[in-house]
Amino acid sequence: TPLLLFNPSSIRESYFNLRSKTTISLSSSSSSLLFAAMLTSRFLTHRVRPVLAQTHKMFLSTTPDLHLIINAVGKDRLGIVSDVTGMVIAVGGNVGDSQAAKLGSHFSLMMEVTLPRDKLDTLKEQIESMPGMNAALYEDEVQDATQTPQIGYTGKFLLEGADNPGIAHKLTSALAKHGLSIDKMSTDQDIAPQGGTMLFKMDGIVTAAAPLAAGFDIEKIKADLEAIGDSLNCDVSLEDA
User: Fold this and answer.
1) CB 83 within 8 A of CB 133
2) I need a surface site. Which of 33, 113, 199, 221 has the fewest CB within 10 A?
3) Residue among 72, 70, 66 nearest 130 (CA)
4) ACT domain location, by residue (predicted)?
5) How far is CA 39 from CA 43, 45, 54, in A?
6) Number of domains into which the chain is organized
7) 10 is a domain residue
């Protein structure tokens, strides 16, 4: 079988002459190669490239975002929350639930965010390099509806009275003993208007997972908490939420 030889420059020249509608004479080998090259280019442009682009787009759209918890604590200053949210938005992320509080001279922030997986290192570097802050990122596990624990009971608790050592520990221990988990809690201290006594206040939200335990008796739990309050010279209450 004879070896087919061709000159690439002659093919390019033939192609441009063809586009300018100039009548030319091509050898059979050059014509075949030119026709094949034109078909290949047209196929890549109109068939393969759009498919690859669509496949890449589908891959990116089906790659789940990361769900993270940002925890930052440091000396209080102006603009901490603004700085953190700005970093999240800059990497294409979104801010979800958050809690923040000033304790003494320090500021504490917990924030739930979502962001593209390929931006994790960028956000991590920025968050951990915040001046004057001790910050870290934690990946949060997202559960679907079938895995999310069901709540059997939700209540609001409140403690108010004279401050004394161990008061918070005694109440939280009683809640745990009765199978109640603290979802949110805040405490505060203040001086009584009369007498100068230091007053302590603690309130929050508690829940119990469903199905409730066989011995779960909310009225008995409320009575036990009131008894603890009497022993501590405090008012303790639990109300259904």
Assistant:
1) no
2) 199
3) 72
4) 156-241
5) 6, 10, 22
6) 2
7) no
